[in-house]
Write a structure and sequence with these properties.
2 domains; 15 helices; binds histidyl-adenosine monophosphate; 8-stranded mixed sheet; Rossmann fold; alpha+beta; 414 residues; 5-stranded mixed sheet; BirA Bifunctional Protein, domain 2
Length: 414
Amino acid sequence: MASKYQAPRGTFDILPAQARARARIERAAAAIFARAGYEPIATPAFEDTELFERGVGRSTDIVRKEMFTFEDKGGRSITLRPEGTAPICRAYIEHGMHKLAQPVKLSYLGPFFRHERPQAGRHRQFHQLGAEAIGTDSPLADVEAIMLLADLLAELGTPGVELRLGSLGSLDSRRAYLEELKAHLHAHEGELSRDVRERIDLNPLRAFDADDEGTQAVMAAAPTIVERLDGEDAEHFAEVRALLEAAGIEHTIDPALVRGLDYYTRTIFSFVCEGLGAQSEIGGGGRYDGLIEQLGGPPTPAVGWAAGIERILLALGEDGGAPGRDVFVVVAEDGQRQRALTLAGELRHAGLSAEVDLAGRSLKGQLKHADRLGARRALILEADGSAQLRDMGTGRQRPVDTARLIDEVAGGGS
Ligand code: HAM
């Protein structure tokens, strides 16, 4: 049936089959986070606009073009969160988490909002899951973070995943490199796209990300920051690579890797899946050693990542399949319907998924419905008070002891 109302452009409804596929991802992530000690945190869906302007950076596409920003009734500027790291750092500062044992390891999951041009894998409301380790500058934390996402993607069976690794150096050491890069860009101004040209001084690194051929040719000859790393930055990068190797995590160094947020320092990484087409990044992140101080907190190094749930689903090429039920309680005659509902309740209390017909179907109709729902077994209540247990896979049926119905069904055999 066509309605004149539809989900807004770039958004979508999550129907039950997709909700099941998502639940599998969310459960796998929650288990991985719990085993590694990354505790869940949730922040509001909107924040003061300034948090993202300061945190994500005024020169980024996200802040310049993609935020859902509006005034609330008190005249304050509010923004639907485009990402989760700045809000989590805000919460870390606001709740004095620097007084806890460091690092504070957090995980999260929820909706995020960016006003982007919608296409496969790119939405205006999408869902991220992510992890942040705040309060450590150890390369071990970088690699632990990467391990979590590598484990999740492997456990889900995500095909064709590649890890790309880069480093941006620390804020101080990056300055000299940025001057060198700006000089290179200015020398080739005429060959750059307008967008890149306008941002040479504001955000020169973004030129590495441009999709027009002119800029790409200029960038192929540009100096890279990975070549310019020195001192502790170079040591940190070497240590991260050695730890990844020791952990058996394959990766390629991508000297031109950049990310769309300004807060990164040192390690950055990106998990891509070639099968995904233009939006090939499943997840990514990196170190952001200056962000908490930038937001008014004490100097606090940190590292983390986020992955897009819709991108993982695309890579898996999967919806949730049939729902699956342990047992469907079928009645041979209407007089048994009340008993069927009571029994379904008892089976549920015993930990099984159990359903009854709520639509007045015939015996045959109920069995067909049970089949459609993917029920493994049907408990058939006969008119004479006896009961049969039917294996829906084989069609084999056997009488069950009505005095011990719950035990017999919960016992698992058919
Ligand atoms: P990000 O790279 O902007 O990083 O987003 C992380 C992931 O979110 C992407 O790899 C992608 O899978 C997904 N994503 C982003 N935009 C969209 C969209 N419009 N539609 C669908 N999926 C999307 C961050 O957000 C950082 N906060 C990650 C981080 C955490 N860095 C350190 N800690």
